[in-house]
Each structure stands twice: as structure tokens, then as C-alpha cells.
Please model this.
Amino acid sequence: MPMARTKTNEGGTKTAKTEARTLAIDVGGTGLKAAILDAAGQMATDRAHVETPDPCPPETLVAALVTLVKPLGTFDRVSVGFPGVVRSGSVVTAPHFGNEIWQGFPLAPTLSRRLGRPVRLLNDAEVQGLGVIAGRGLEVVLTLGTGVGSAVFHDGKLTPHLELAHHPIHKNKTYNEYLGNEARQSHGRKAWNRRVQRAIGIVHTLLNYDLLYIGGGNAAHISVELPDKVRITSNEAGITGGIRLWDDAVWTLTGTD
Model:
């Protein structure tokens, strides 16, 4: 039976879909990006970008995002992709920033108060997926960056979040440790590409996907031949996918808890 994934829609007033300008924010482990999207989901401004603060407790990130988006102009609503597990507008895990200090932080309501607009929050890999999926069959997204993000969609709908990043993949190494940026830099491009190939096979065995999309900043370093069911996607989908957070149909999950 389908179930509703809780969304946060804090503050602000309703705006007609045909006119709404969406501020899309992509929170990464090493970079913060944002742009305004028009009603069709196309970028209406250049993409703003700064390095992610380090360390990055909640108050520091919120302040950095408010500063980042200030030059972009007016907007009616906000979509945020966050690198961790999020639920009901709050952060459950934030492995890149520190789980203890982030657990339970109400990021969506806090940003809504600071920006004066309604905010919807979702895992960053899921936002990227919403920007690229075809909406048919079982589609899986892997993002390769500081760490590894993952998302699973069935007929265009989100399934319960699968946090592959912290699951063992090879010799007790997690996906983050095996495929993350540190592994790529330590082992070199050739060895890292072999690891990507191995991971693709494992994920196919695990999920039997119809299509696998690989995104994130490190997708550009993939140089091996990929199977027919695998696509490299533009990293801009982490921004443009934000328009889909305001499609209420997206928030109906397939499956059960």
C-alpha cells in the first residue's frame, strides 16, 4: 500500500505553479551550490558556489547558505538536497559534518525562518535522481563525490531511503570508504574505476534495476566502458531536480516501512 513521505512546507504563502521561482540548494560535503529555477525547472540564474565550511555545525551551515543565496534575487520557495538521512524536515544523520551535532536538527524550519519562504528538504542523491529519472520501472541513482549517495525510485516514486554509503561492499569497507573521494585519490584513477565497475555489478545483483544513473562530481573521472543499463548524469541535476520537490506526487512512497 503506498504511503506518504512526510514533507516540510514551512512559512511563506502559496504561489501559482506557473509563476513560482524555486531556490534550489545542493549541500555537498565539500561545496555548497544554489540557483534560482523558473517554473519549468530551468536555471534562471547562474549557479552560486562556495566551499562547505569546515567544521560545519548546523548554525554555521545555515549562515553560509543565507549568505550564498543573497545575490541570487527573489524566489517563492526553497528546495534543499542534504547529504544524509532526513525526515520530516529534520536531519537524522550527517556523516560528513558530524552525526552527533546534527541529529534532530530542524534544518527545513530553520531555513524557512531565515529565508522567509517555505522549504522542502530531501536527501541530495534523491534530489539528483528526481532531475534525471524517466519515471518507468526500477531506477537507481548513485552519486560519487566526497562520499557515496544513493536513491531508488519505482515508476517515478521514491522508495524508502537506502543508505548504501555505510553498508559494507568489500573486505569490510563501506561504499564511502571504497568509492569516496579519498579512495579515488589514494588508489589512483585506474584502480578506482575498477572499484566502480565492481560496485555497479553488486548494485545490479542487489536491486536488479532497469536503469542506474551515476552522478556527483567524481562521475567525471569514470573512464571504463559501462553496461547498457548505466548512464552518467549531469551534476547540475542536484540543482534542477529541486523543482520536483514541489510536485506532491513525489512524496507518495512505494512500498512499506
Summary: The chain is about 25% helix and 25% strand. Residues 189-207 form the longest helix (19 residues). Helices lie at 58-69, 99-102, 107-115, 124-130, 175-179, 181-187, 189-207, 237-240.
